[in-house]
Structures are given as C-alpha cells and as structure tokens.
Amino acid sequence: MAGRCYVFSYVNPDTDGVCSAIGYSRFKRSTSGEGFLPVVFGTLNNETAFALEHFGVETPVMNPVLPQDCAIALVDTHHVRQLPAHMPLANVVEILDHHPAGDPAAFPNAAIQNDRIGAVATLVAERFKACPLEPDSTTAGLLLAAIISNTLNFSAPSTTDRDKEACAWLQKIAPADPDFACRMFESRSGIDSLSTQELLLADYKEFSLGGFVVGISQIESMDFQKISERADLMSSLERIKAHRRIDHVFLNCIDILKKKALLVCCDPVTQEKLTRALGADFKNNRAYFDHIVLRKTDLLPQLKKVLF
Ligand SMILES: [Mn+2]
Q1: What is the CATH number of domain 193-307?
Q2: Residue 224: which pLDDT band, with cuts at 50, 70 and 90?
Q3: How far apart are the CA of 231 and the centre of ligand 1, in A?
Q4: Binning pLDDT at 50, 70 and 90, where does residue 1 land?
Q5: Residue-range domain boundaries for the chain
Q6: What is the per-residue pLDDT across 49-106, written as a single tens digit (0 to 9) for each?
Q7: Please, which residues have CB less than 5 A from ligand 1, an ion?
Q8: Is 253 within 8 Å of 231 (Cβ atoms)?
Q9: By C-alpha distance, which of 86, 169, 178 is closest to 134?
Q10: Which of 42, 231, 269, 291 is the most core-located residue (most Cβ within 10 A)?
Q11: Distance 120 CA to ligand 1 centre (A)
Q12: Alpha-carbon dihedral angle through residues 154, 82, 213, 242, given to the nearest 10 degrees
C-alpha cells in the first residue's frame, strides 16, 4: 500500500509543468478523493511565479524528500535525466506528457498518456472535460496560463486544435484579461538579475540521442543580443559540459515577438552537428535565424537525424 502521493514535473519546471501538477492534483482530489500533493523540484521561474500570484495560488512545496513508499504522478516529462536524482522510478503510477523520445520503459508501473499536443495542461483540461467536471476558476486559469505559455500564445508549431479547444473551454470558466498573455511573457525575463550560469540552467534540459547526451539551454528574451554579449557565456557553457560530463551543450535564444533565434555554442564538433542538422551558419560561435527555433519541435528532431 503506497504512502503519500505526489505529483510533479521535471527539475526546474516551466509554467506548463507546475500548473499542470497543481491542476492534476485538483483533478484527482475531485474525482477519486486521492490526495496527490503538487511539489516542485529545483526552482520556480519568474513566469510561473507571476502566474501563481495572478491567480492567488500558493507556491507548491519545494524540493521535498520523497518517502520510499510514496506514489508519484509525473506531468510534462518522462525523461529520466530530467528528474530528481535517485528518484524511485518504480513508484511512478501515472504519467501525462507531450514530449517525444522519453523513457517509457523506465516506468514499469505507470499508466502513460503521451500525446503530441502543445501543452500537457491540455491533457489535464481534457481529463476534467471527459468526466464531465468543471474545474474551479482558479484551476481553469492556471491551466489556461500553462497552455498560453507553452504554445507561445498559439504561435508555436506544436500547437494543435486540441490545445485551442481546451483553451476555449477554460476561457468560458475563467475569462482571461485581454493583456494577460502579454504580461505573462514580460514576466519571463528578469534576466539581468541572474548570473550567466543561473541563466543557462533556468530552462536547461538533457537528452540522450544516439548514444550522446545533449544539453540544451533555452532562453526566451526580447533582447538576446545582451545575453550573447555576456563575457562569461562561453566559459559558462563549457563549465556545464565538463561538470555534467555530457557530449554536447549549447544555448538556444529565441525572441518570440521578432520571430528570431540565436544558437550559441563554442565546441566545433557540436557546431558541425548543428550545421548539418539545421543549416546553422556559425560565426564567432554564434548562428542567427530569421525564425523561431524551438528545442522540442525544431532542435530535437533535426539533431536526432544527425546523431543517430
Ligand atoms: Mn510542457
């Protein structure tokens, strides 16, 4: 018999991960009476803190010690390398995700739903809708914020009709202010207060691709030139690579409004892979793009082709 139940996302989760964990916890409580405590490992980013405050929701418990006999629901990931170290993988009973190339076999006891949609919050909203059960307006607002955040207000290529339908349904329960998306995106930065190392690790994920481990940091900023000019940018990337003992590491900067991207990478071997994968043209360790390049929908599938 399992002890406490927890629901959480990957370490240093984004708004989709945190809001979906809270939303799923509320779903479980209302439908089966089970108490899955939403928790966060790592730190909360500025945008998520903004969304929680906007809807008057308390910050989840941070970095708890998990008891050996706990039951775990995961949202927004099923990649072992993105989870807290020494996490009891066999205790995972449920997974809701929307990411390819995970490790489903690492979770032998989990019921897994992994659909190619824009946000895992869409899956949580669909669970409510299927009951049918209306979430309270706070929960609806959090799920809405998560979908808007993850689909970049429906402009990301991963956006599907299911995300739009979930959003329309949630909007009826919790109408969002017209400028909500804009204010939430503005809250993402706060970049100046972070060290380069903190900045690179704020939204950093590792992937196993064809026997290589690739670390990709992604930063959304309306002024990525400023980040690109940080004096310790290259040394910070090199430090991550050495410290994490991985094969490739690079930074992906995106400007959502101007629809531009910048890849930063100082290793010539990695640069060569990125050039083959994306047609990147590196000059002085930097490659610019006149369109948005997203880790999940652009980088991973293309890199997979050249690394396997
Ligand atoms: Mn997500």
Answers
A1: 3.10.310.20
A2: confident
A3: 31
A4: very low
A5: 5-185, 193-307
A6: 999 999 999 999 999 999 999 999 999 999 999 999 989 999 999 999 999 878 999 9
A7: 16, 76, 120, 150
A8: no
A9: 169
A10: 42
A11: 5
A12: 120
